[in-house]
Amino acid sequence: MTRCVLPALVLIASVLCVATQVPAADYFLTIGGGYAPTGNQISLEKNVLFFQHLLAQKYPDGPTQHDIFFSDGVDPGRDLQYVDAAARVPRANLLLASVFRKTKYLNHRYRSHQVPGVRGGTTRTNLSKWFAEEGSQLKPGDRLLIYVTGHGGKSKDKKRTANTQLFLWNNQPVLMTELTRHLDKVPAEVPVVVVMVQCYSGGFANLIFRQGDPLKGLARANRCGFYATVETRPAAGCTPDINEENYQEYSSYFWAAMLGATRTGQAVSSCDYNEDGVVSFAEAHAYALLTSSTIDISVKTSDAFLRAYSRLPKSRSKAARRKAAGVERPPEPERELLHPDTAFDELITWARPEERVVLEGLSGQLEVFDARRARQAHRVALRLNKEKKEQATRRTKLQTQYDKLATRIRREVINRWPELANPLHPQAVDMIQQEAAAIVDCIESHASFKSFSRLRRQINRLSREQLDRDRQWAKCQRLIRLLESVALAANLPRVASVARQWEYAQLVIAETATLGVNR
Fold it and tell me: Which pLDDT score is estimated for 98?
């Protein structure tokens, strides 16, 4: 079937002309916090505070409306988890926790959250009510921005891996398809921008489709979004550490790029990659892709659109089979399609300015400079993955030895203080406090203790090395995925209808918008 090919720049410029004629007011909805006090880390609270600071800078007179739902809402209970750097866990408790394999939450403290202006808790009822009563009343020309900073889970449907979960307070899950139904209550004339940083958040990139299903076409509303990681992987972040300098999560980079400063006030070099005077959402996303050294493989909604409606050339194996059958060259349309392994110097000419910066920057960080850039990055990823597996095997062996030694030491402790076999025994707490010195001496003088301590250090070192390799592997995936996205965008006019190309142009315009009263 013959397709009409329209230059992308003409389409995008046409949509931009229409978009700039509409006056607008921005409305904000923040959904934050964990699923329970033990999963409601202080970094989630500070994410909301940083976002509030950003909005105060971008909207000097205050945003039109900012509704915040966070953990247990206005309940004064101790819902927030943090680590008190000044507090010290007694040596006896540390050693007992190690040999009894009960180190989780050992040095954590709890208090009530301190997010100002909270409207309520993150419950299914509150969200449903907000979209029915507030979201549905937004007017044409308004824009809704939703920021989600919390926890997420994989899809429970193996046939639909994109239907991932957002966990609300009291472990209430919201599926991607459910959030899509909520968004359907917002008038179609109101653009929606979503920023989500929870694990497996990439599944929510599908909220641009009807009922979250690419087979059912694009939703009537103009929606776009930016997500910490793909639908199959956990995300970085969520820490009880009170030191914000240690925060390494997607929205820290995303909002810092738009603000021009980190959450600790350090200046961020200009992320205005196309030099138009403002930093767009897409440019902030590019900054996060390029700068963050985390396990995240961050994505945006146009990535989901292109993977649904564009395509790459048929696989090399099929091409080889055609050649073996006497067909020397693929059909004409196939020859026109770009591939992630198209010569880099050619492929990068199809990239937008922020994409070029990321492609060149990640290539430099990974030291991959071959013409077939995706292939080389894939080889690096395979090597890193092999090294990770080897480290995991060594770590498992060490962990087995460590557990055996812990059992030996634990047995001697229980023989001397049988009440400690159950930490909830009425006498256990008093015993640990009153006989702390004797307990420490019993453990540290054990014949296996030196080997036990050495194994723990080796396991921790291997864990750090595994994480470092996983971070490098993630950078490889970012580069490969972006090369794929550039090729898919270039191929879209050759495989899609004019209507589909127009939809993509609208999506790109939404992604390249910005925050502020003069957006």
Answer: 96
Per-position DSSP letters for 263-326, written without gaps between them: TTS-B-----TT-SSS--HHHHHHHHHHH--SS---EEHHHHHHHHH--PPPPHHHHHHHHHTT
Handedness of CA 322, 326, 331, 334 (dihedral sign): positive
Query: What pTM was computed for the model?
Result: 0.91
Per-residue DSSP letter, 218: B
Distances (CA, A) of 386 to 376, 381, 393, 429, 470: 16, 9, 11, 46, 11
Could you report the per-residue pLDDT of 49-104, keeping only the tens digit for each? 999 999 999 999 877 899 999 999 999 999 999 998 888 999 999 999 999 999 99
pLDDT over 70 (residue 3): no
Q: Which two tokens stand for residue 189?
A: 């004339």
Beta bridge partners of 383: none
Contact (CB, 8 A) for 222 and 191: yes
Burial class (CB in 10 A: 0-12, 13-18, 19+), 447: exposed
Surface-to-core class of residue 347, CB atoms within 10 Å of its CB (0-12 exposed, 13-18 middle, 19+ buried): buried
pLDDT at 363: 98
How far is 519 from 507, CA to CA, in rounded Å?
A: 16
- Mean confidence (pLDDT) of the chain: 91
Tokens representing residue 424 in the block: 């909830």
Domain positions in the chain are 8-85+110-309+497-511, 342-495
Q: How many CB atoms sit inside 10 A of residue 466's CB?
A: 18
Q: Which amino acid is at 434?
A: Q
Average pLDDT of span 458-478: 96
Query: Where does 8-85+110-309+497-511 sit in CATH, by number?
Result: 3.40.50.1460
SS3 content of the chain, % helix, strand, coil (to 5): 50, 10, 35
pLDDT for the residue numbered 519: 62
Whether 298 contacts 227, CB under 8 Å = yes
